[in-house]
Every structure is written in structure tokens, then in C-alpha cells.
Amino acid sequence: MARHEELFIAVITVLVCLVQESKADGNIPKPQITQTPVGSVIYRNEKITLNCSVPWNSLGLDYIWYKDATLFNSNQIYTIDSADPSRNGEYKCQVKRDNDTSELSDPLTLSVVGKDVK
């Protein structure tokens, strides 16, 4: 076997062990919030979707959403059908499986402007 093949196999083995160890420890990665549509300007009456996700298998996870530090939703996806200024604020999410809880996501700030969606 060539030296580069042996090195490749060793690297893959280490990566597989690290992934398995991370999952065995029960560590849940920090979730991320994505917004659809993407953009910093949100218009009144616009439909907005926020998705809380982690970079690996999400089966069996519970989702916790916070708006301005107040719990308000428990689904992976949060949809605002008609945005208005009452939806302004800082949104964060957290993921839980059994007794393991992730850290809070980085905040996503929504700011609805007074104009109607174009």
C-alpha cells in the first residue's frame, strides 16, 4: 500500500472516531437560524420563515425558540404569515434531546418596516 493511501486511511479513521465520540458524549452542536427570504429589510405583511437547524441528524430533537429572551415556540420552523412591527425583536433557538441541551444560537434580529411588501 502506498504511503499516501496509509495516511488517508489514518486520517479517515481519526475523523470517524471524533464524530462517534462527539455523538456518544451527547453533545449537541450549536444551532443556527436561517431566514427566508434572506435580507435585512422585512416589509409589513411579508411572509417570513425562520428555521432552527444543527449540522447533523435532527431526528428526535426538540426545538426551543426565544424572542427577546421569552420562550414562544417549540417547532423547528417558525413562520410569520404576515409580518408587522410586533414581530420585531431578537430571536434565538436551542435544541434538546433527552437530557442534553445545546447552547443558544447566535441571535437573529427582525425589524419590520412600515411599508407593505412589494
Provide key terms for this protein.
Immunoglobulin-like, 118 residues, 5-stranded antiparallel sheet, 3-stranded antiparallel sheet, alpha+beta
What is the strand and helix layout of this fold?
Elements: H1 3-24, E1 32-36, E2 42-44, E3 48-53, E4 62-67, E5 70-73, E6 77-80, E7 89-97, E8 100-101, E9 108-110, E10 112-116
Parallel strand pairs: 2-10
Antiparallel strand pairs: 1-3, 3-6, 4-5, 4-7, 7-8, 7-9
Tell me what the structure shows.
The structure is a single chain. By secondary structure, the protein is an alpha+beta fold. It has a single domain, classed as Immunoglobulins (Immunoglobulin-like), CATH 2.60.40. It has 1 helix and 10 strands, in the order αββββββββββ. Strands 4, 5, 7, 8 and 9 form a 5-stranded antiparallel beta sheet that branches. It has a 3-stranded antiparallel beta sheet with strand order 1-3-6, with no helix packed on it.
Structure at a glance:
Pfam families: Ig_2. The chain is α+β, with helices and mostly antiparallel strands and about 120 residues long.
* Helix share bin: 10-25%
Mean residue pLDDT? 83
- Largest β-sheet summary: 5 strands, antiparallel
Overall domain count: 1
What is the CATH fold-level name? Answer: Immunoglobulin-like
